[in-house]
Amino acid sequence: MADRGERVEGRLDGARGVGLYWQGQLPADDPTGVLLICHGLGEHSGRYGHVEDALVPDGWAVYGLDHRGHGRSGGRRAHLDDYGDWLADFDAFRRHVAARHPGLPVFLLGHSMGGQIALAYALQHGTGLRGLVLSAPALASNAVPKAAVPVLRLLARVAPTLRPAGIDATKISKDPAVVAAYQADPLVHQGNPTLGLSSALFAQMDVLPERARGLRLPLLLQHGLEDVLTEVSGSRLLERTSGSPDQTVRYYPGLWHEIYNEPERDGPLADLRDWLAAHR
């Protein structure tokens, strides 16, 4: 097994000229596959150390992008003007990383908000990927009553930068140390997202499960059954509608939102590791 090698980082230009930060961890020997991480709301690419620890020794080069308005990337904090900006940003990132490792298979892992973005990206740019992993994808939410969503989307058109509500950070993991580190992390956005960002997420929840009938990539879908931040019902709907001819679904009793940061993380990480090895 390969040991950890070089830590790499850099910047690239995203849509509308927003500067984007990326980082990666390489194995000591030549990598045999690439995993791109698409992080969740408010966080950043540096919060996936357990994923790196599990995969880099197997020869994976693991890279993450800080979304615009997140982490070390530019842009208004936790805000989005247009959903297409996320997809264009991530495509620039994927192309940049793929050019660093020509010929290697590229997989995409998205968590929460990043799981939604990853699914939308895979439906638009799937030819550049070998497979897709979704961890607690944001495809359903009880954060806003369903009847209120049209009002939220209307308000977002006239006041997109308002920040009326956010997530409860204490619900990301049962591990108090994970929550404390999240709350103390200067790169985590501790405030609420804007209505522009929230409205964009809710709009995609309405259409992505149906669009997923066109998915042709191998898919690993993982979700903790005690997740109260992104509803398991969204993953169950995707399980039914996905057109993937090679679909693996894992639900974890007792696990909360961040399955790779739970005390029982070894189970989800082993499933991730095994699935990637089987599809490389």
Strand content: 15-25%
CATH superfamily membership = Alpha/Beta hydrolase fold, catalytic domain
Overall pLDDT: 95
Distance between the termini: 16 Å
| Secondary-structure arrangement, i.e. CATH architecture | 3-Layer(aba) Sandwich
Estimate nothing, just give the exact number of structural domains.
Answer: 1
Largest sheet: 8 strands, mixed
pLDDT < 50 runs, ≥5 residues: none
- Please give the CATH class: Alpha Beta
Rg is 17 Å
For this structure, the CATH topology is Rossmann fold
Principal-axis shape equals globular
| Coarse structural class | alpha/beta
What pattern of helices and strands is seen along the backbone? EEEHEHEHEHHHEHEH
Number of H- or I-type helical stretches: 8
Helix content: 25-40%
Main sheet: which strands, in order across?
Answer: 1-2-4-3-5-6-7-8
Describe, in plain words, how this protein is organized in 3D.
It is a single chain. The chain is an alpha/beta fold and about 280 residues long. The protein has one domain: Alpha/Beta hydrolase fold, catalytic domain (Rossmann fold), CATH 3.40.50.1820. It has helices at about 50-55, 85-100, 115-125, 150-160, 175-185, 195-210, 230-240, 265-280, and strands at about 5-15, 20-25, 35-40, 60-65, 105-110, 130-135, 220-225, 245-250. It has an eight-stranded mixed β-sheet, with helices on both faces. β5, α3 and β6 (about 130-135) form a beta-alpha-beta unit. α2 crosses α3 (about 115-125), α3 crosses α6 and α4 (about 150-160) packs across α6. The longest helix has 18 residues, at about 85-100. The relative contact order is 0.15. The model has no long low-confidence stretch (mean pLDDT about 95).
